[in-house]
Each structure stands twice: as C-alpha cells, then as structure tokens.
Specification:
Blueprint (H helix, E strand, L loop, with lengths): L18 E6 L6 H14 L4 E4 L2 E3 L9 H9 L5 H4 L2 E3 L5 H7 L6 H6 L2 H6 L2 E9 L10 H8 L3 E6 L4 H14 L4 E7 L3 H5 L7 H9 L3 E5 L8 H11 L3 H6 L11
Parallel strand pairs: 1-5, 1-6, 2-5, 3-4, 6-7, 7-8
Helix pairs in contact: 1-2, 1-11, 8-10
C-alpha cells in the first residue's frame, strides 16, 4: 500500500497497489526499455497495467528523451508524461540534487502521493526506479526507503556483462536487509558490440543464481532503433517468462486477479 512517511496509512484514501518495482543495479542498465516491454506484454495479455516513474532527472519534458516519454511510446499506454513522472528535473544528477538545483526540496510523502492518480486508474503498476536502490531521493531517504513504503516486490534489472555479479548481489543484499521480496533478475545485453566482446555474459547468470540464490528470469537481447509495443511484447515472450511477473502482482495467467 502507499504509506505515509511515518508508516501510517488512511484506508479510506489509499488503494492497494498490485505492482512491481523495477530496480536497477546502476543507472543506464536498461530499466526503462524492460519496464516498457513488460508493460506492453502485460497489456497484450489483458492486464490493465500502467507505469509510474516517481521522479526522473536529466532532461526536460517535451525533449522526447525523458524516461516517461520513452515509457509511454514503447509501452503503448495512453498517458501524459507528467502523469507518469510527476516530478521531472533537467539536471543530470541524482534526484535529490537535481531537485535542489531547480529550487525544489523533495519529500518522501509527496513522491508517494504523486502516484495516487495512477493507482486509481490501473489494476497494476510497474514502478521504475531512479538509478540503483541506494540513490538519494530526499535529504533523508534513498530509493530503497521509497520501495519499502510501497510494500511491493522488486524485479532487479542488471547488465549482463562484466561486473554484474558484484552489483547484483550487493543490490539483492540491501533489499533483503529491509525484508523486501525479490522475484528475480533480468539481465540486459545492452549494445550489440558490447555483447559480442564480453565472454563473461555467458556465465554471469549461472554465477548470480549460485551466489545470490536469486532466479535469473531471462536475458534481454541488445536492441537498436525504435521498437513498437507489439515488437517488444514479442521479445519479452521469447526471452522472459511473464507468469512470475503476473503472480508477483497478484494476477493469474489469464490476467485475472488471484484470490
């Protein structure tokens, strides 16, 4: 559920989220394209799924390159960018610092409240984080604090190449310290040239599973150019099992709600 900063909630004002938080091991690991692809696939299966990017930084709305605009285009949802991302800041800095540069002091409860309209409109939300789980959001809170307040499980997106074992295990360890459930990991190949030149990509999934106890759900292929929701849906269906995603958000394999 969406909770107030002190852990209390008003059941008359709040609606339960059937959702999934997409957390990265770092910035630039592919959270946005994978979030959009999963959303497109869920919607193609009849799930009324939406996307929420609580805060983003690095470009202005209208530029066409913000995460919110890319999420809308690639997933096929009909939303305004400012609805998907209620807080957008131009500076390419961590959200807390980007907000301060814009003269705004972010507060955790305001970030939580920003998602309420989306909670009311959708049966399920895929919530994309900003950078990794230890990124500062406010003067007092990290991304992981935001996740804990939402009370939804996490899907970790990680690079498939060299260094990902360390980053993924550390991310999982921090989430586990807060008793946040993790449904698994998706590895993202990123650019084709990098995938071809990194032999570690062939063994990293097995080693992540061995040393973390997490399930690597799939390996997302390298993409170039602009992809339609239909094309991304087909890629997800070939590379990532969608059932664990549905079950994490309390939906069965037909899109119906699990009792």
């Amino acid at each position: 559920m969406l909770r107030k900063a002190d852990g209390e909630r008003d059941p008359e004002e709040m609606k339960r989220i059937n959702g999934l938080f997409i957390a990265g091991t770092d910035t630039g690991v592919g959270k946005t394209i994978i979030t959009a692809a999963l959303t497109a696939a869920l919607r193609a299966d009849g799930v009324n799924a939406g996307i929420w990017k609580p805060v983003q930084s690095g470009a202005p709305l209208g530029s066409g390159i913000t995460d919110a605009e890319r999420l809308i285009s690639a997933s096929g949802i009909e939303e305004l960018p400012q609805a998907v991302a209620p807080f957008t800041f131009d500076a390419p800095l961590t959200p807390m610092l980007a907000a301060k540069q814009a003269g705004v002091t972010l507060v955790l409860q305001k970030l939580l409240d920003g998602g309420e309209p989306l909670v009311q409109r959708y049966d399920a939300l895929l919530v994309e984080g900003a950078g990794g789980v230890a990124v500062p959001l406010t003067d007092e809170h990290l991304v992981i604090d935001f996740i804990a307040h939402l009370g939804i499980p996490v899907l970790i997106v990680a690079r498939s190449g060299l260094g990902t074992i360390n980053h993924t295990i550390l991310t999982a360890s921090l989430l586990r310290q807060r008793s946040i459930p993790i449904i698994g990991v998706i590895l993202n190949d990123g650019e084709q040239t990098a995938a071809c030149n990194d032999p570690s990509r062939d063994t990293n999934a097995e080693l992540i599973e061995r040393f973390s106890g997490l399930k690597v759900l799939g390996r997302f292929p390298p993409l170039q150019g602009v992809f339609t929701p239909k094309a991304l849906t087909e890629i997800i269906r070939k590379t990532v099992p969608i059932l664990p995603i549905k079950q994490a958000m309390a939906f069965d394999d037909t899109g119906g709600t699990l009792e």
